[in-house]
Amino acid sequence: MSEAQPDELRPLAIELNALARDNAAALATARASAANLAHALKTPVATLALTVRDDPAQVAQLARIDATIRHHLARARNIAGGHASSTALAPAIADLVSTIRRLRMERTVVIDAAIDSALHVAVDAADLDELAGNLIDNAARHAGTRVRVSATVDQGMIRLSVVDDGPGIALADRQRATDAGVRLDEREDGHGFGLAIARELAALYGGVLVLDDAAGGGLSASVTLPIGTAV
């Protein structure tokens, strides 16, 4: 829209143009997130397709993957369209911590969470599970002995922080660490999509992922998310 409007209409034209630019940016990020997901699932889908007709277990796995893809596409459409949701932060984090403790039992890493029960984020529950789950699991894989999860209100957003006492990530490698498919340590398991997915999910909700040194050593991964309201 041209901003060469009468004085009383010019502010509206400027605001509408800014909104259009924001929507375009959200759509671009959504497409990138969907591309990451498709890439991550390409190999397992191809493997399952070879035997899917004769193996009920493979059929179930393929159906699960299909549901995941549908969820991510719906999420991208909803966020681009401005649909809001609200999720209680404390129980979601508690469930994730419990699950990751079981998954990483061989590591004997202590995972602590301190989240105010009053905090809600304006994020879809499944998206929050994926975003926070990637950050907590990444920390649990690399921690020496402990992972701490906390949340604070910061400048009108909620800052969710996941801190570990592992080797950390060198400053020069931090940007690359959030690129899709990048694994800084090939000895570890995983496919290198965890931090990239967390970064892009945060961006879809207007937040940012920041990697920093943890006090005393290790990595601090913090993400800002919009504040939700109790339902």
Which short descriptors sum up this protein?
two-stranded antiparallel sheet, globular, 17% strand, 231 residues, 6 helices, alpha+beta, Heat Shock Protein 90, 7 strands, 2 domains, single chain, five-stranded mixed β-sheet
Q: Roughly what is the average pLDDT, rounded to an integer?
A: 77
The low-pLDDT segments are 180-187
Q: Structural class of the secondary elements? A: alpha+beta
SS field, number of helical segments: 6
Taking the sheet with the most strands, its summary is:
5 strands, mixed
**CATH architecture label of the largest domain:** 2-Layer Sandwich
CATH structural class of the largest domain: Alpha Beta
At the third CATH level, what is the topology name of the largest domain?
Heat Shock Protein 90
Strands of the widest sheet, in order across it, are 2-4-5-7-6
Shape: globular
What does this structure look like?
The protein is an alpha+beta fold. The protein has 2 domains: 71 residues; 140 residues, Heat Shock Protein 90 (2-Layer Sandwich). Helix content is 50%, strand content 17%. It is built from 6 helices and 7 strands, in the order ααβαββαββααββ. The chain has a 5-stranded mixed β-sheet. A two-stranded antiparallel ribbon has the order 1-3. Strand 6 and strand 7 form a beta hairpin. Helix 1 packs antiparallel against helix 6 and helix 4 runs antiparallel to helix 6. It is globular and about 65 Å long.
